From TrEMBL:
One of its GO terms (biological process) is regulation of chromatin organization. It is found in: Nucleus, Nucleolus; Nucleus; Chromosome. Residues 459-551, 608-706 are annotated as: Disordered. The keyword Protein biosynthesis does not apply. This is FACT complex subunit SSRP1. Residues 517-531 have a biased composition (Basic residues). Residues 545-613 form the HMG box domain. Component of the FACT complex, a general chromatin factor that acts to reorganize nucleosomes. The FACT complex is involved in multiple processes that require DNA as a template such as mRNA elongation, DNA replication and DNA repair. During transcription elongation the FACT complex acts as a histone chaperone that both destabilizes and restores nucleosomal structure. InterPro entries: HMG_box_dom, HMG_box_dom_sf, PH-like_dom_sf, RTT106/SPT16-like_middle_dom, RTT106/SSRP1_HistChap/FACT, SSRP1-like_PH1, SSRP1/POB3, SSRP1/POB3_N. Residues 545-613 bind DNA. One of its GO terms (cellular component) is nucleolus. It comes from Ramphastos sulfuratus.
Length: 706
């Protein structure tokens, strides 16, 4: 006989909703863990009073009744599991698992029985339906009628909100059956009534969610938030967890209360109640109870008179009344020493706290994610700047949370924390020697590299290459994307000779348009040497031998991977610092070994340069001769063009005074538009002819000048 039985995909009926989870039966008792909220219900074996097996809508169900009147329902079992459960109950709990079927006759009259916190409507000996009285939010009476109202279930598409019972009158004197029915319901119902005085009151506390300042009145069974506009009543049974979180500025504290079901205001649901306190604010508190009652109810956890910081008093009182532990941040420490990380979620900035069993983000909107519901996490490159990164969490239900704008300095700390908690990292990159401890997520993208470590690695390689070739590349590197010479050839700009020719031929009406091309043609002549300069800068031979590395660089290349493995997650800058420290601490004997290797590399480099120089000497002399010949030809063409231009200018100047003797006087600076345009066009034509056809010999150039 097994000591434990475990069942997956079991549904627990709580306040009209079916919550799935895992059920475990052991010698000590019954444990059910809710998959959605992580809440654990623990029923001790000694508290079990009755077990019932019956057929329900989701197959077969198990109903457990405890000695103090609580009822627990679990559905989702298979019919074949009855024998196994019945034998387990008999052996470990000494209970007979009884089989009881529901009545399906469809009759609407019968007998109402109250047993513990359950209202059962029976026909004969068979129950038709059952109502947990904790679901009842209000009970009203009328003439021979009782109306039950229920809490709204946000998780269900359709909720049962009201049931009415007709109670026939009886002949007994002095007993009203309607009032008796209502009193039985109200004694067990979850109806919040502020009867009596509050145990204590905290005035004007700053509340972030829901926003405002509220007076918090502490009652024995519920918490009352009283504000200027709204009031909220929170039963202690709806409190899931309590968190006490230090603010990053170390001057304030968050006190977070997790609620299920949430408090409601219209269509808004508040799953978290967040209070903000200043550490400097103190309070003296006196409970509205005598010392004997305090000792009997709280068993030393509270005293009648207490004093201290306000946040300590509130958290201490809540812990005693709710009877739950307070969760505080664990061992995580960020880059600045704080126990949280500044980030953004959706449109708001807030703080992400890595806890021992999950993450919590405060405050707008607050999010709590448990480790056991996380499928994987992902480190992604920031969308707006390289100074930050994004931290993504995807749950097993497919919900994705993206915390963005996290400072790059926090990356190593957060990565190590996630690794230590054995969470599956989607883009596990260069962390060597770290293997997943389980194979549940074998299909995740393990081939994807970490965005930041990959980028830093590439930058490190580029820096090393630049350090090796720094002397070779000095004064020779160019920005090849900017080629002014090519741009001038491809597009006819305003200052090109082609553009000026078209403008002078098409728009010859004004003197200004005709003078412009002459000025702009000079700009082209000034830009030509720049083109030659850029061309000269591109003259580096890729086949030339590379300069040898120093002894330190040879040692670093050989030991880089070892340093990475000794310091997982180290950045490129930290790796360089660490390598410098190791090199400085190295003994002279070990350094001499690398000095010899560097000396050998230098000799090989000098030898290769000699061989390279001998092979390229003849080629360089031939290139030099061709350049000199080309310069000589260009000078001859330029002289020819200047001679032609001067002869044409002198002939036109001698003819113009004869023509204009009868006209008015003109100054020496005056040049007619026809003469300037014709002279300029002739000059440009001569230049173009000279560049296009180079003269083969000096005889041809002499004939051309005649």
């Amino acid at each position: 006989m097994a000591d434990t039985l475990e069942f997956n995909e079991i549904y627990q009926e709580v306040k009209g909703s079916m919550n799935d989870g895992r059920l475990r039966l052991s010698r000590q008792g019954v444990i059910f863990k809710n998959s959605k909220t992580g809440k654990v219900d623990n029923i001790q074996a000694s508290e079990l009073a009755e077990g019932v097996w019956r057929r329900v809508a989701l197959g077969h169900g198990l109903k457990l009744l405890t000695k103090n009147g609580h009822v627990y329902k679990y559905d989702g079992f298979r019919e074949s599991e009855f024998d196994k459960l019945s034998e387990f109950f008999r052996a470990h709990y000494r209970l007979e698992l009884a089989e009881k079927d529901l009545c399906v006759k469809g009759w609407n009259w019968g007998t109402v029985r109250f047993g513990g916190q359950l209202l059962s409507f029976d026909i004969g000996e068979q129950p038709v339906f059952e109502i947990p009285l904790s679901n009842v939010s209000q009970c009203t009476t009328g003439k021979n009628e009782v109306t039950l109202e229920f809490h709204q279930n946000d998780d269900a598409e359709v909720s049962l909100m009201e049931v009415r019972f007709y109670v026939p009158p009886t002949q007994e004197d002095g007993v009203d059956p309607v009032e008796a029915f209502a009193q039985n319901v109200l004694s067990k119902a979850d109806v919040i009534q502020a009867t009596g005085d509050a145990i204590c009151i905290f005035r004007e506390l700053q509340c972030l969610t829901p926003r405002g300042r509220y007076d918090i009145r502490i009652y024995p069974t519920f918490l009352h938030l009283h504000g200027k506009t709204f009031d909220y009543k929170i039963p202690y049974t709806t409190v899931l967890r309590l968190f006490l979180l230090p603010h990053k500025d170390q001057r304030q504290m968050f006190f977070v209360i997790s609620l299920d079901p949430p408090i409601k205001q219209g269509q808004t649901r508040y799953h978290f109640l967040i209070l903000l306190f200043s550490k400097d604010e103190d309070i003296s508190l006196t409970l509205n109870m005598n010392e004997e009652e305090v000792e009997k109810r709280f068993e030393g956890r509270l005293t009648k008179n207490m004093s201290g910081s306000l946040y300590e008093m509130v958290s201490r009182v809540m812990k005693a009344l709710v009877n739950r532990k307070i969760t505080v941040p664990g061992n995580f420490q960020g880059h600045s020493g704080a126990q949280c990380i500044t980030c953004s979620y959706k449109a708001s900035s807030g703080l992400l706290y890595p806890l021992e069993r999950g993450f919590i983000y405060v405050h707008k909107p607050p999010v709590h994610i448990r480790f056991d519901e996380i499928s994987f996490v992902n480190f992604a490159r920031g969308t707006t700047t390289t100074r930050s990164f994004d931290f993504e969490i995807e749950t097993k239900q497919g919900t994705q949370y993206t915390f963005s704008s996290i400072e790059r300095e926090e990356y190593g700390k957060l990565f190590d924390f996630v690794n230590a908690k054995k969470l599956n990292i989607k883009n596990r990159g260069l962390k060597e020697g770290m293997k997943q401890s389980y194979d549940e997520y074998a299909d995740s993208d393990e081939d994807q590299h970490d965005a930041y470590l990959e980028r830093m690695k590439e930058e490190g390689k580029i820096r090393e290459e630049n350090a090796n070739d720094s002397s070779d590349n000095s004064g020779e590197e160019t920005d090849e994307s900017f080629n002014p010479g090519e741009e001038d050839d491809d597009v006819a700009e305003e200052f090109d000779s082609n553009a000026s020719a078209s403008s002078s031929s098409g728009d010859g009406d004004s003197d200004r348009d005709e003078k412009k091309p002459a000025k702009k043609a000079k700009v082209v002549k000034d830009r030509k040497p720049r083109k030659k300069q850029v061309e000269n800068k591109k003259g580096k031979d890729p086949n030339a031998p590379k300069r040898p590395m120093s002894a330190y660089m040879l040692w670093l290349n050989a030991n880089r991977e070892r340093i990475k493995s000794d310091h997982p997650g180290i950045s490129i800058t930290d790796l360089s610092k660490k390598a410098g420290e190791l090199w400085k601490a190295m003994s002279k004997e070990k350094k001499e070994e690398w000095d010899r290797k560097a000396e050998d590399a230098r000799r090989d480099y000098e030898k290769a340069m000699k061989e390279y120089g001998m092979g390229s000497k003849s080629e360089s002399s031939r290139v030099e001769k061709s350049k000199k010949k080309k310069k000589k030809q260009e000078k001859q063409v330029k002289g020819k063009a200047e001679k032609k231009g001067s002869t044409s200018k002198s002939s036109s100047s001698t003819k113009s005074p004869a023509k204009n003797t009868n006209e008015s006087f003109k100054s020496k600076e005056f040049v007619s538009s026809d003469e300037s345009s014709s002279a300029e066009s002739k000059k440009e034509d001569s230049e173009e002819e000279g560049v296009a056809s180079l003269p083969p010999s000096s005889e041809d150039s002499a004939s051309g000048s005649d």
